[in-house]
Amino acid sequence: MQEDSPVQNENTPDTSQTTQPQRTGRRNRLIVLGAAALVALGLGGVAVATSGNDRPAPAAVSLDAQSRAEAASRADRSERESSTPVTPSLSPTPSPSAVSASPTPTRTAVAKVKPKPKKTTKPTPAWVDPMPGAAVTSCYGQRWGTLHAGIDLALPSGTPIRAAAAGTVTQAGDASDGYGNSVFIDHGNGYLTHYAHQSRIAVTVGQKVKAGQVIGYEGATGDATGPHLHFEVHQGMWNQIDPAPFMRAHGVDLGC
Ligand SMILES: [Zn+2]
């Protein structure tokens, strides 16, 4: 008895449980339908006119989202607009630009001022090319059985000739020795430079010259087949040495 009764009790509740959910499901469906109808009525004539159950609901949601977004943006705008006159956040922004604009002219003014003294204060090198840009037509060495004791530098006649280094003019003129109009400069360190075949001499004996100073003009006086500067370096008077390595050691490349 006791064993059967639970079985019967189990059967009866099974049927009741199966029937009760169905009833409750029907009731729920009715409730859902009623709620949907209420929602449809609540949405108004638009939902009814469209007669779409799914379309108006998301449309309404999207409209709500848009309206909320617009409201939020309006709120942001209102906050921004309201903040603009009250907070001085915009007033400092022009002030830093004015501050930044003021240092820029000072920087340019400083940059303009600095290079000028640098250019003017550049010291001339101790040794310079006596005739820059000239073509080397003959180097120091044996030539035609005799020693060519200098370097021949060619440019059009009348090209300025410059002192290779600072010194004192010891000879200036035509000694009728084949060099034509020539100039000797004693550099005070045991070396002299000699500039021959000049068309015109621009210095006098005893004159002190600076490196790069014009001492005369190229020509073809003396034993010269054409206008050129015959440039010599003397280690002691009339002891000619090869000018090329000497000048190269002083930072001037004559090309030989
Ligand atoms: Zn020569």
TrEMBL record:
Residues 1-28, 48-129 are annotated as: Disordered. It comes from the Bacteria. Residues 147-243 form the M23ase beta-sheet core domain. The chain crosses the membrane at residues 30-49. InterPro entries: Cell_wall_metabolism_enzyme, Dup_hybrid_motif, M23ase_b-sheet_dom. Residues 83-112 have a biased composition (Low complexity). Residues 1-23 have a biased composition (Polar residues). Keywords: Membrane, Transmembrane, Transmembrane helix. CDD domains: M23_peptidase. Residues 71-82 have a biased composition (Basic and acidic residues). GO terms for molecular function: metalloendopeptidase activity. This is Peptidase M23.
